[in-house]
Amino acid sequence: MEESTPKYQTFVVNSAKYKTLYTKKFEMRTKWERPDMNEIRSYIPGTVLKLMVKTGQKVKEGECLLILEAMKMENKIEMPFDGKIKEIHVEEGVRIPKDVIMITIE
Amino acid sequence: MSLKRNILDLRKRKQEVQLGGGEKAIEKQVAMGKKTARERIMSILDEDSFHEYDLFVEHTARDFDMDKKVLHGDGVIIGTGTIYNQPVCIYAQDFTVAGGSLGLMHARKITKIMDHALKMRVPLIGINDSGGARIQEGVNSLAGYGEIFYRNTKASGVIPQISVILGPCAGGAVYSPALTDFVFVVENISKMFITGPSVIKTVLGEEISMEELGGARVHSEITGNAHFYAESEDECFDQIKSLISFIPWNNTQKARKFPPQEPTSSLNIEEIVPSDPRRPYDIRDIIRAVTDSSEFFEIMEHFARNIVIGFGRLKGDTVGFVANQPKYLAGVLDCDSSDKAARFIRYCDAFNIPIVTLEDMPGYLPGVDQEHAGVIRHGAKLLYAYSEATVPKITVILRKAYGGGYIAMNSRHLGADFVFAWPTAEIAVMGPEGAANIVFRKEIAEAENPDEVRKQKIEEYKEKFANPYVAAAKGYIDEVIEPAETRSLLIHSLTLSDNKVDARPAKKHGIPPF
Prior knowledge:
The structure holds two protein chains of two kinds. Chain A has one helix at about 25-30, and strands spanning about 10-15, 15-20, 40, 45-50, 60, 65-70, 75-80, 85-90, 95, 100-105. Chain A is mainly β. Chain A has a domain at about 40-105: CATH 2.40.50.100. In chain A, strand 6 (about 65-70) and strand 7 (about 75-80) form a beta hairpin. By secondary structure, chain B is an alpha/beta fold. Chain B has three domains: about 5-245, 2-enoyl-CoA Hydratase, Chain A, domain 1 (Alpha-Beta Complex), CATH 3.90.226.10; about 270-430 and about 465-495, Alpha-Beta Complex (2-enoyl-CoA Hydratase, Chain A, domain 1), CATH 3.90.226.10; about 430-465, no CATH class. In chain B, the strands form two sheets. In chain B, strands 1, 2, 3, 4, 5, 6, 7 and 8 form an eight-stranded mixed beta sheet that branches. In chain B, strands 9, 10, 11, 12, 13, 14, 15 and 16 form an eight-stranded mixed beta sheet that branches. Chain B starts with a helix and ends in an 18-residue tail after the last helix. Chain B: One of its GO terms (cellular component) is acetyl-CoA carboxylase complex.
């Protein structure tokens, strides 16, 4: 597991540039992105059991958009604020991983 | 029956049971590149020292036709033996018997040897190789796991607990190793996870192999669950024996003293560290330049490599080393390195092992991922562990000791007993580059040639503050020393602190930021 000849990289801490090696975990880290409030993402992997809305429909805050079955629970996905359904990206019966955009609203 | 016949009968019974799951199952085990449970115990213990307990225990399950099944020893071997002529308790799950699955009597055997180890104040070694809970025994097997976890916790910090993962260790079973002091894994053999690849595939549709999910490398490099990685079982057993040579048998004893030896490293301690604080080197070369026989037994070598932990000896006595590693990520502190070092410090403190801290770090790792991963609470573990520890604590500052990291790395302020600094030490609130940018922001911004002024201000700051003498003037460090004096001063400090008394207020326990 030891590297062969080290190829040192530049690494900045408090404006100082250091020569050092990156660890695997550091290289694998994911970049942070500001969450888009208009994207309804799956917060848990599961199956889209039922879609309750249609494209173009006006929906009030708190109304159910779809039911996502995960870990043997039927989770209601609710509208975060009053708005309109712009696009639906999933179909009923589809199994999706975590963090997938299910519905775009506006 | 005459006595002779009784004895022959006993031998026959033993022989039969000792074969575990039988020759076919043993063949399978060997084909997987694994030793049998009994071979493993024999490889770890001194020759002919093993005494087996509960050989004739049988399972009590009745449902699902289990009453018709014979499971020799109920899939686990327990007993006592010696390592270096000192007693230990040991158990090994036998994968050849019902896949080493854990049922009620299997668990009772394990808890029996655990209770024994705790009562006798001797180390416990557990070899895990099990398919998991014995489904046919239902809630009884869950009870078994719980009783093991309870004892792991009760024995924690009293006797050394060593877990060896030599096969699958999945579901609830993983938590016993996780509660113990040291976890050993072997390439291609060890597999640890809460939910396996098949469940992950069914539920999430993610496809991953056992090795990629929870193999030896993953736990050594990514998760930090494992402390020692070996290519083979034999290498793993050698590692266990090396580890055992460095640690005391229980929390009332000190580690075994070895004959003092001089370092054998050919490296000159004055030539290892580059004078430019931004250039890397391997901190382990410094450790080996000061330890007996230049021996350093590294723990968690592959995880959070920006900090190095492990054991070495100074004049025959075990010390624990905690050292920033400039070779990786410039030696910064982050979530993983704080967590790694903090747990080791607590281990050393629980088992009367003095701690030597070698410091050369530029600060904390910047980044959203770090902040969101909780670098505040993970970093706090390090402060807590150092402040709480009452064993002798010695710090040597080699180069950079900036900001919060300076405080965290066993500073005088956290209760260090001895703080030494090399003349190359830079003890300051931050590095010259960062400090100049803040302190002289206005001058730099208003200058006709900002870059030149910045350079000049950095030099000014460096001259004034990037040295050990500002801190020395306040008594925050005891002595500015020449690198070549390091070993003799460490030994001197250890001798001086042989009878150290450091009282803490009475309490049930603290609330560390777990």
